Hints:
Order of helices and strands: HEE
Number of helices: 1
Amino acid sequence: xxxxxxxxxxxxxxxxxxxESDLLQSAFCMQNKYTLVTHNIRHFVHIEYLSLxxxx
Length: 56
């Protein structure tokens, strides 16, 4: 179960806050060991251990 999302050390959540929907999507994918498919990679690249794929 995902209890917290780890952000990379170079990212500052205060300067780049995540939207609630991005947070929920990433947590769901991490919880179920899914790959998140999105064209907005920059929204998620700072989350460690999240598998990302850009199919565009």
